[in-house]
């Protein structure tokens, strides 16, 4: 797990987002336990409170459940909900790209051409 100390994004939020991405991508599967709070805090050299806050955020989003004395485990995920979350992330990134393109003075057709080029590069991998 990679944390950026000076990104302006709180550490707990970075942890939660990375774990959420792993859950959404299926890297962390239903019933699988997250690393222990103390263990992850030690590994990342951060406060146990920060790690706990990240796990509580995931629990509030319904992605994990706390099991008394055992830690947090991944909940079953609704495939349609996961798809909607992925679509929402795609929209956020595309909106950000549109804003950056406007700042750079790109026209819509240039932006579409760039997207087409990137998509064809992905297919060629």
Give a verbal description of the structure.
62% of the residues lie in helices and 6% in strands. The protein has five helices and two strands. A two-stranded antiparallel sheet has the order 1-2. It is elongated.
Brief sketch in words of this structure:
The chain is 62% helix and 6% strand. It has 125 residues and is mainly alpha-helical.
Properties at a glance:
single chain, 125 residues, two-stranded antiparallel ribbon, 5 helices, 62% helix, 6% strand
Biggest beta sheet summary: 2 strands, antiparallel
Helix content: 55-70%
Gyration radius from CA atoms, angstroms: 18 Å
Arithmetic mean of pLDDT:
90
Strand order of the largest sheet: 1-2
User: Could you state the order of secondary-structure elements as H and E?
Assistant: HHHEEHH
Q: β content, as a range?
A: 5-15%
N- and C-termini, Cα separation: 25 Å
Number of DSSP strand runs? 2
Q: Helix- and strand-based class?
A: mainly alpha
Overall shape: elongated
The number of helical runs is 5
Point out poorly predicted stretches. none
């Amino acid at each position: 797990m990679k944390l950026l100390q000076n990104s302006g994004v709180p550490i707990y939020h970075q942890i939660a987002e990375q774990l959420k991405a792993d859950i959404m991508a299926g890297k962390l599967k239903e019933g699988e336990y997250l690393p222990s709070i103390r263990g992850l805090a030690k590994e990342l050299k951060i406060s146990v409170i920060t790690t706990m806050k990240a796990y509580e955020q995931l629990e509030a989003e319904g992605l994990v459940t706390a099991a008394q004395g055992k830690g947090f485990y991944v909940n079953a995920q609704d495939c349609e909900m996961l798809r909607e979350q992925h679509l929402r992330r795609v929209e956020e990134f595309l909106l950000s790209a549109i804003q950056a393109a406007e700042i750079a003075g790109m026209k819509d057709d240039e932006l579409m051409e760039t997207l087409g080029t990137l998509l064809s590069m992905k297919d060629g991998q």
